[in-house]
Structures are given as C-alpha cells and as structure tokens.
Amino acid sequence: MRLNKRVSELIKNGKVFSKGRLTVYYLPRRGEKICVFYSLSKKIYTSVQRNYIKRLVREALRKTDVPYDLLVKVAEKNIDFNVINSFFTSFKELFSYEDSTNSCN
C-alpha cells in the first residue's frame, strides 16, 4: 500500500523527463536507497522482455547514480542498453544544469 502511494505521488507531484520512447517521473529521494518503479505493458511485453528492460535500467542507473526516486515508463519493445544509458546520462546532465542555475541565486 505504501508503494502505491509513492507511485501516485510520483505521477501527481513529480517532474517529468522524456526523450524518445522513454519517460521518467522523478522526485527527490526519501531514504538512503533509490526507489525505482517500472511501467511496462503486459500486453506488449513478455516477462522475459520486461525483466531484461529492468536489468538494463538498473545498470544504467548504477552507472549514472541519480539521486531521485523514479517511475520509468518504456514504450519501445526493442530497446538496447546504449539508448537507455544515453537517456540516463542526459537525465543526469539535466540535474547538473539545474544545480548550476540554482546556485547563481
């Protein structure tokens, strides 16, 4: 039940970053560990494909170390690691840009 509240909070109050067929809703992390939720259609994907995409996203997040709770929506069936990794690299660059503009105030 608590996780459903966090997902609802991410959708309602979170910021959105989208590039191509990937979308991320994000909010600042609450605890020490990052919470990552996935939105993959069971009609389009088999369980093997869903788990493969989850592993790719986890690896990309491990490399970029994003300090936010995330809801990741993937709308592309045939996606590879390079696309996901470049997405999260762009995502992280967005935060470094936001931090630099906030520090000028």
Describe the overall structure.
The chain has helices at residues 2-13, 47-64, 81-103, and strands spanning 15-19, 22-28, 36-39, 68-74. By secondary structure, it is an alpha+beta fold. A 4-stranded mixed beta sheet has the order 1-2-4-3, sandwiched between helices. The protein is globular, with a radius of gyration of 14 Å. The model has no long low-confidence stretch (mean pLDDT 81).
List the helices and strands and how they pair.
Elements: H1 2-13, E1 15-19, E2 22-28, E3 36-39, H2 47-64, E4 68-74, H3 81-103
Parallel strand pairs: 3-4
Antiparallel strand pairs: 1-2, 2-4
Helix pairs in contact: 2-3
- Principal-axis shape equals globular
Task: Give the name of the CATH architecture.
Answer: 2-Layer Sandwich
Main β-sheet: number of strands, strand sense, barrel status?
Answer: 4 strands, mixed
The helical percent reads 40-55%
**Broad structural category:** alpha+beta
Q: Output the number of helix runs.
A: 3
Q: Low-confidence parts, pLDDT < 50 over ≥5 residues?
A: none
String of helices and strands? HEEEHEH
Distance between the termini: 39 Å
Spatial arrangement of strands, main beta sheet: 1-2-4-3
Total number of domains: 1
Assign the CATH topology. Ribosomal Protein S5, domain 2
Count of strand segments: 4
CATH class: Alpha Beta
Radius of gyration: 14 Å
The fraction of residues assigned to DSSP E strands is 15-25%
The mean pLDDT is 81
